[in-house]
Predict the 3D structure of the following.
Amino acid sequence: MNEKKNKKKQNRLIMRTVILLLMIAAIGYTLYNNATAEDVSVLKAGDKAPDFSLVDLEGNTHKLSDYKGQGVFLNFWGTWCKPCAKEMPAMDRQYEQFKDQGVQVLAVNIAQSEFEVQNFADQYNLSFPVVIDKTKSVMTAYNIIPLPTTVLVNPEGEIEQVVTGEMTEQDIKGFMEEIKPE
Amino acid sequence: MEKMQCKCGHVNPPGTVLCESCGRSLTEKEQNSKLVDMRYEGTARRSQTYNKTIVDKIWNFFSSVKVGVSLIVVILVAAAIGTILPQQQYVDVPVRNAETIQAYYADVYGSVGRVYHFLGFHDLYNSFWFIILVGMLAISLIVASLDRFVPLYRSLKNQRVLRHASFMNKQRIYAEGNGTEDTLDKAEAKLKELKYNVSRDKNGLLAEKGRFSRWGPYVNHIGLIIFLVGVMLRMMPGFYVDETLWIREGETRAIPEAPGYTLESKNFEMETYNTEEDEVFEEAIERVGTVAKNYQTDVVLYKKPDDSLPGANDLEKIEESAIRVNQPLKFDGYAIYQMDFKLNELKAMTFALTNKETEENLGELTIDLINPKNDYELENGSTVKLLGYYPDFSGFENGEPQTATPLPNNPGFLVEMTTPETPGGETSFITIQNTVEPLGENQYKLAFQSADTRDVSGLTIRKDRTLPILGLGGLIFMIGVAQGMYFNHRRFWIQQQADGGILLAGHTNKNWFGLKKDLDQVTEYASLPAYRDQQEEIEKQKKEEGEALS
């Protein structure tokens, strides 16, 4: 009789513990999801950089996956964005230094006309490829909000860092060092 | 606490109020009261008597109805406070991020706004303490229901037909008096006719109807829990999407949060009623000017092949569709709604190359503001070369024209005009209603002729995989409400004693009027003794005492 009673008590305790733990886990999971909801779509360091395929002003197609083994300095910009324009000459100078060391610069324009982009590229005499994201699909895939945003992709195709806002020449140099293949 | 043994010999769990077997009152308080407390059939709620480990203490906390009701009140008050200032998604900030939103509350509402934001009221449903409160309410619903449902279910399942006289005479509906030999048989026949389940045991009879209405509250709680699960899933990625897409006529855009899908806007249309055709609206049109008839975006939906990459130009057309208010485009669990619009953004401008002196027109050219060309050839060998294009001209910086946005709100053009008369070319900077000639006086000018415009559609992209779960939760909730509200659990106990005398008691969880109507019929048919409503008698007595005192 007593043994039966004790067993019943023990079962009850296990049952209660399981129900309470399940409920607490559900609340914890909800809190976790809620806290990370805003970062879920934004890319983080360590994520695999989504592949894309865009056409540059000369008509050449650039796929991110083509540059595997090289560091890719992915710069999202627009002609109306002043900080974008300001960092372009510095990017161009550093590109000249790093392109032979396996760092590729891709400047992704956000859905502007070829005329404006070509004019801009000519004006700043840019030597790296400038591609246009006509349907904003790459912008959407990378969840780019402010311009300029620069995504640093390492030779393994993973995101090393996401930089929003204007960069100094010193910054750019440092970032290119960071993603340079060994 | 000790087990409680009843006089009838049955051993009841600690905390029992009415003996599980015979119905005798077990506590002194119950023994002294005129009527028994029939809530939960007088069973022991384990949580009140069993309190050993920390788990039991937590369990007992959530088992309390007081705690449950307090949680509901706190949640209600918090939700009410959340409506006093606007929620963050409705505040108007130029750039939307955590800092600007925080600054908005401080700037607009002062220190009240600062506290409001600090406590998370600006985004109530996502603030951690609100989620914890709702979670605690969910725990309370489950624990309190289990603690009450299990003993109640057991007790109703194991009901005895024969109850002790003291249980019977403490029921609200009670009768005693003489009977005949066939009283129980007749009562059984009539009760069966009234759709009661009747069971007999020796000299006793138990008639019962609508027991399932007692499960109403618990079914109702199951519905609520399912509803809360649906709400919880909304916060998980992939279950819920609510995005805005502004798309201009002629544009093709990736649909946010719908990977692989692209939308092209062919046309936006806004129609209004006019007084001739739609006489019904005449009065309204005269009063307010225009009455909208239709907002519509004609779109083409494309999907990328599965192995395609973002940016690649290999769209496959899925369907053409017209999105109207309340008539969304639906695909793959998504729905795109017509929500907003902007009319008449500049799209193209037409100019005439004109001799400033003679007003001679050398031909017209149209500049597409979305996709301008480099060169424009006119008939008689004149050309206009576009040197620079600034869609939203905002002034000069270091002699360089600037554009504030990529949208053609205030287009500026730097052009070089070459005519047979001026083969060297003349440079001119043109904005709306203004021309600058930076390299000296020109013979020719571009005279503005006309402009084309296009409209912008504001679309909302929605996906909600939790809707079926929310619907199911709501349905079960309503079934529980109906079960508990529109059905009653009615019971009669009748006993014939050795001397032929009849004892009768009746109980229902609600609608005593209905119970009495049933009993009236049985009493008449089976010649039962007249019953008394003891509760009414007590109330009447109290009232009289009150009157006597005053």
The first helix of chain B runs from residue 28 to 32. Residues 250 and 266 of chain B are 6 Å apart (CA to CA).
